[in-house]
Amino acid sequence: MKNRMNELVKQLNQYADAYYRLDSPLVSDAEYDKLYRDLVELETAHPDLVLPNSPSHRVGGKVLEGFSKYQHQYPLYSLQDAFSFEELAAFDRRVRKEFPHVTYICELKIDGLSISLTYEAGHLVVGATRGDGSIGENITENLKRVQDIPLTLPEPLDITVRGECYMPKASFGRVNQIRQEAGEVEFANPRNAAAGTLRQLDTRIVAKRGLATFLYQEASPTEADSQSHVLEKLTKLGFVTNQDYYLADTMEDVWHFIEDLAGRRQNLPYDIDGVVIKVNNLAVQEELGFTVKAPRWAIAYKFPAEEKEAEILSVDWTVGRTGVVTPTANLTPVQLAGTTVSRATLHNVDYIADKDIRLHDTVIVYKAGDIIPAVLSVVEAKRDQQEPLLIPTACPSCGSELRHYEDEVALRCINPLCPAQLKSKLEHFASRDAMNIAGLGPSIVEKLFSANLVHDVADIYQLSIEDLLTLEGFKEKSATKLYQAIQASKSNSAERLLFGLGIRHVGSKASKIVLENFVTVPRLAEASLEEIAVLDGIGAVIAESLTTYFGSEGAKTLLAELEASDVNLSYLGQKVSSDAQLAGMTIVLTGKLERLKRSEAKAKLESLGANVAGSVSKKTDLVVAGSDAGSKLAKAQELGIEVRDEAWLESL
Ligand code: AMP
Ligand code: ZN
After folding, report:
1. Range list for CATH 1.10.150.20 in the chain
2. What is the CATH number of domain 307-404?
3. Which residues does the annotation mark as catalytic?
4. Which ranges in the chain are annotated with CATH 1.10.287.610?
5. Ligand 2 centre and the CA of 393: distance in Å?
6. What is the spatial distance between Cα 212 and Cα 542, in angstroms, rounded to a whole number?
7. Where NAD(+) is bound, by residue (predicted)?
8. For the chain, N or C: smaller number of CB within 10 Å?
């Protein structure tokens, strides 16, 4: 038993390493998942035998109460700064006075947070933040959720290593997109996002955020003789090291590396804020020693601050996908990180109010990586009698009144006929969980709008085959097919329609509940807030959102149009709705189900029209995760795929 578990853990870790760190999978996801399930089964039966390096430690949520202090055995140091070649040359002269023939290693200065990882007998026992250098915080549970940190090493070493934990630009974009759509405050930059994530008390959130690491230092005594050998050793032990380093014999060489880097840093998949230059030979490092707070053998060159002053000339307000209205400042042009910047985001109305940003203010604009420039703060000294910024009360796209909900930082346009929102609304309307109109994807929606054939979701029911034939790329057969799919959607049970309308807080489950009770959409539209809020599973939030929506003129027009096109507005009950409930969806099962057997779960999903697949990919629509779900769940989260639980499966 123990041997089998050992073997599984070893194999799974090797596969995960190949997948996450080396980016070259050794086995299929299906194969991985099978082994993972075998392991979890054994672990469930023998919880006392769970190995410390089991991949099952990486998933599953824990809500922590807080972080305890951690006293570093080897203190973390900071670095002396340099901002010019002259400062680097002065550093070089000091070093060469004692050691005329040194070689330097230039490493990227990753803009994240320093972390310290301590392994005992090869097992990760503590992961901590830097803190003040001698006392940090114990964030072991969170760091275990960072996929590229090894839980065990290939050798039973006692070792403490240091490095940087950061959020890749891609993860940052995804995380902020989600926050923006939810009306939440966005992270200002990847560094803040990484810091906020590592301080999360819910480890599941950490697992979802896609953090990564670069390790660069062995803090415990090492046998390596140079920094480049340390990097090699760390790589062999399974850590991710940054291979974009450079060995330089002179400061001129170092400077060339820096200049080259300045030109390509925008294209790196992570933010850097400079270059760390270290004496490569560790014996020389030791001889040079430390000042009170920093090593004498290293210096950090920092890129010039990517902040400039600019004047706000005007502000544009644009309506996004979910009706969120975002302010962008037009600025006097400034050079920032190698590009000319004349526009910067002001984030949202609350941000403007907090920072008291006014028209014609001189502000600090900054740019991090390839992220759009943002206004950081007002230069108060340069203000005289600036007028306050006019906050729109009407939607810039459709003119209807904007809402500022109490729980949101943003303004929102809730008009369902708002042109700026309509395209994405139509995409949602046609999507599988909603009206399920096969073939009506984003590119076709775009074509329909540019051809002026469609202005709102109701218009698609006016389309003829001839109309569709006028679109680029359509032939008789494809036009007929799309036409038929549109016609067929008219007889859907109305909870699909309701969900498809994309009303705030109203998901497919809530849509079903309210229509089971009110039966038709027009009747629901007449219902009072109290009548809706008393329903089981529906709270005041959903009820209010529904009444606000149906109270708007746009909604009334839309309903009338749909009715005139013979779109079914009634709930057709279990029978009809269920046989199409999961039609065409690709669903993946993972983890251990408590009440249903896996074969039963699969049969149930298939009977509802779903296609049950073995591994998670971009084509997966939904993942049903039981307890101890493994890599499939992690992958689903990484790809942003919806995840449901066993209770949901039973509720179908
Ligand atoms: P500073 O915070 O500006 O004093 O710079 C020191 C910090 O740079 C360290 O605490 C590390 O978190 C960070 N750093 C990033 N990359 C490296 C690297 N390759 N070598 C040393 N420190 C680095
Ligand atoms: Zn609008």
Report:
1. 419-490, 494-565
2. 2.40.50.140
3. 109
4. 1-58
5. 11
6. 37
7. 29-33, 78-79, 107, 130, 164, 278, 302
8. N
